């Protein structure tokens, strides 16, 4: 499937034989490795020098009504979107075809689920941003990094959703697994191939660039909590409760709850 959508960088290069040029090399070779370095080293720095700041900075105590709506909606949507990106970018199309999933089947499921999940994510994020802006205590607890993170995150999600709708719902369709996915894998193979991105529609290119920007700022925002698992909760010691009452009740004290002298 093809599309007549414009491309951001490399259209002229594609016509002249596929040479991505200096701009294409900077965008699709240098920038991804800079992003990976900042992402990894940034988390190392954050863990060493800001362990107490490695948190979601929860604002649940300030307001719960909007949070109960926006947070599940956003987290459900972003989880489905993340899984879709993992499947689309990492798993080659020949693997899915080998297990009986044709490209048409994959395309239909990906577009339907991706569009629904994208709208859920964007709606949930809109509610959370509205809550953060209109609820006084929550707004006062919002840092500059939070504001920057929300702008970049919302932009990345909106561009990705627009790319899906423009190419695969309004347009004739675009199979990014033949271009963007091989380019993505080539970066991790240490054999980056910027030629694959020269003919990619502009919205897909902008989505990729905004995602790179998001991963660059990731270590310095509250997004770090996504890489933390509460493993210590399983092995933590019991919490000891002390009562000021002389009589602990009518029933016999259970073992392990004896009064501490």
From TrEMBL:
Localization annotation: Cell membrane
Matches recorded under NCBIfam families: narI
Domain of life: Bacteria
Pfam families for the chain: Nitrate_red_gam (PF02665)
Span of domain NarG-like: 25-244
Gene3D superfamilies: Transmembrane di-heme cytochromes, Chain C
Protein name: Respiratory nitrate reductase subunit gamma
Keywords, alphabetical: Cell membrane, Electron transport, Heme, Iron, Membrane, Metal-binding, Nitrate assimilation, Oxidoreductase, Transmembrane, Transmembrane helix, Transport
Record's bilayer topology term: Multi-pass membrane protein
Transmembrane segments: 26-45, 66-86, 106-130, 150-170, 202-221
SUPFAM superfamilies xrefs: Respiratory nitrate reductase 1 gamma chain (SSF103501)
Predominant localisation class: membrane
